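User: I'm new to structure prediction. If I give you an amino acid sequence, what do you actually give back? Let's try with this one:
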Amino acid sequence: MATSTLNRDTHEIQSGLDSIVIVKALADIPGGRTLDVSDVASGVNVLKAGHIIIAKNGVYKPMPVDGSSYDSLPSGYSYVGVLKATISVKDARAAIVTMGQVNAAACPYTVTDAMKSALSNIQFLYA
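Assistant: Good question. You get back a string of structure tokens that encode the predicted 3D arrangement of the chain. For your 127 residues, that looks like this:
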């Protein structure tokens, strides 16, 4: 299970698109989740708002990326929501939207039809 410390150094992350990615957050996972970022490529320092989040057996992680697009869904995992705000990989505490509206045009990677279908409580706009 992924863990994080509640004592951390203060730092600012500016992605520029956070304010337009999540159009309307109507529901989320209460308290958020700490993401397992062990499979995130080295050199990636942040996960941007709008990143698809997946889970298996209570382990939450960002959807794998292959270059400039999402990779295939790992076996046994399911789509659970969308990252609400950009976070540091070193401090992977995430708010995850499960119902609402997302500006798909501002997401870091193209949201596939399979993702849209699985996340039926989220309306992906401008795709």
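You can read the tokens as a compact description of the fold. Here is one thing that stands out. The chain has a mean pLDDT of 92.
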